[in-house]
Amino acid sequence: MIRRVVTLQSNNPKSKTVQTHDPARVLKPALRLIILLFFGAGCTAEKQDRNSPKEETAARSTLDRVTAGSPARKTMRLFTEQPARVEAFEQTPIQSKISGYIESVHCDIGDAVSKGQLLIRIRAPEYQNQWEQKLAIVGQAESEIKQAEANLLAARAAANSAMAMVVQAQASIARAQADYARWDSENQRMKQLVSRGSVTAKLAEETTSQFQAADAVRQEATASVESARARQQQSEADVVTAEADVDAAKAKLRVVQAELQQAQTMLTYTELNSPFDGYVTSRHVDSGHYVHPGNADKSVPLLTIANLSKVRVFVQVPESEAPWVDAGFNDAAQGDIATILASVLPRGGLQGRVARTSLQIDPQSRSLTAEIDVDNRDLKLLPGAYVTARILLEERSDALTLPTTAIVQNAGKTVCCIIKDGRVEHCPIELGLRAGEDVQILSGLNGDETVVLTRANSLQPGQMVEVVAKK
Question: The CATH number of 65-75+398-469 is which of 3.30.230.80, 3.30.70.360, 2.60.120.460, 2.40.420.20?
Answer without folding.
Answer: 2.40.420.20
